[in-house]
Design brief:
By secondary structure, this protein is of the alpha/beta class. Helices cover 45% and strands 14% of the residues. The chain is built from 15 helices and 12 strands.
Length: 383
């Protein structure tokens, strides 16, 4: 071969373009996509605020619940506190495993945010206090309560626990809040579905993206933007929470659907507008819950208590009391009326200051203790 001649075979072999050079457009798209993902994750790290409700989740059969075996920090009324859930997704003193059966006695509590223990630690909550006192006697308290539950969800969740989870317990206590009647209207269109593996995967994926991806967080924030239920009472330091609802189109034909949430027992116009229908639905679903308990041989007790609005109005013989007392007498449930505990013993201002979180309708630690002691007395023989 002559000097200076180039070996074309070696040239072509050494300059073969790699796959990136062969597909420049595809390569550019991949690099841009990877860059956007990195930017999205960094933005999520920097700008996604702390989620104080990370332990809450939706449920296809009874609307919403807590994530099982979770540890989280939450806030209510300006106070941060820890929330632990057990294997059933109930608020508890630890992330323990709850067995289907229990050697001693077991009571299941159902209620809304009051029994969940909004604004207080587990040890300060009604269920936490009673569980501590009764555990030495071989009695267990399970707290199935969660914010914005109502008779429909009490029935559905109890049914799910008995028939799908095989949970055994000796008695059911249902704490019916004043706000439950409006919540019955909110959930009027809810259709229960048994959860599937696909539901679980979708929920976990959605929660992961909402906590890590700024785009996922933004989409979640927009899709869950619903009317706020404002539980503030008479004070500037308002305590409130965004809760999720379905089928709110045209709800009560009002720009302010939560109007009168706590005064349907006092205001005849509010009662006529939606309170009467909400009470009818509540009675229907509590009868279904009673039938469920009868089917499985489980006694049931209804507990009622006033909101501050009833206390300040001296609403002792409230619609809430008379309706559920008549229900209990008709269908043979236990009945514990806590209205006299909060109304008449002292002035309304003194009662509110002693037992409620400032600016809120929920009980403070002393309010939880008062209710716990009344329930303990009822269980121990004051029925």
């Amino acid at each position: 071969m002559a000097k200076g001649r180039i070996d074309s075979g070696k040239l072509s072999q050494g300059t073969t373009p790699n796959r990136f050079a062969k597909h420049p457009v595809r390569t550019l798209i991949l690099f841009i996509a990877a860059g956007l993902v990195v930017i999205d994750l960094i933005a999520g790290l920097l700008f996604i605020p702390k989620d104080y409700h990370a332990f809450r989740c939706t449920h296809p059969f009874y609307h919403h619940d807590f994530i099982p075996s979770a540890t989280a920090e939450t806030m209510w009324g300006g106070r941060e506190y820890e929330v632990l859930t057990n294997s059933l997704g109930f608020r508890d003193g630890s992330t323990r495993t709850v067995t289907s059966d229990y050697q001693g006695k077991r009571y299941l509590f159902m209620g809304d945010s009051f029994l969940e223990g909004m604004g207080v630690s587990w040890e300060e909550s009604v269920a936490g206090i009673l569980n501590s006192r009764f555990s030495e006697k071989g009695t267990e308290i399970l707290n199935g309560a969660a914010v914005s539950y109502s008779p429909l969800l009490y029935w559905l969740k109890t049914r799910y626990l008995i028939e799908e989870k095989g949970l055994n317990f000796d008695e059911l206590f249902v704490f019916i809040d004043i706000s439950d009647i409006q919540d019955e209207i909110f959930y009027k269109g809810f259709e229960p579905r048994l959860p599937t593996a696909w539901n679980h995967l979708i929920m976990k994926t959605g929660r992961f993206l909402a906590r890590t991806s700024f785009l996922g967080y933004s989409i979640s924030a927009v899709s869950h933007k619903h009317p706020r239920i404002d539980n503030a009472f008479y004070e500037d330091e308002m305590a409130n929470i965004n809760v999720w609802f379905q089928n709110l189109d045209g709800y009560m034909d009002s720009d302010n659907p939560e109007e009168g949430r706590f005064i349907w027992t006092l205001d005849n116009q509010v009662f006529k507008r939606w309170g009467k229908e909400g009470l009818r639905l509540a009675g229907k679903h509590m009868k279904q819950l009673k039938d469920l308990c009868d089917k499985h041989g489980i006694p049931q007790t209804i507990v009622v208590y006033p909101a501050p609005h009833q206390i300040f109005a001296n609403d002792l013989d409230s619609r809430q009391v008379t309706f559920w007392k008549e229900f209990s007498e008709k269908y043979g449930t236990g009945f514990l009326n806590l209205f006299p505990v909060f109304i008449g013993e002292r002035t309304a201002e003194e009662t509110y200051g002693m037992f409620f979180i400032k600016g809120d309708t929920h009980w403070n630690p002393d309010g939880n203790l008062l209710v716990a002691e009344m329930v303990e007395r009822f269980i121990e023989g004051g029925r």
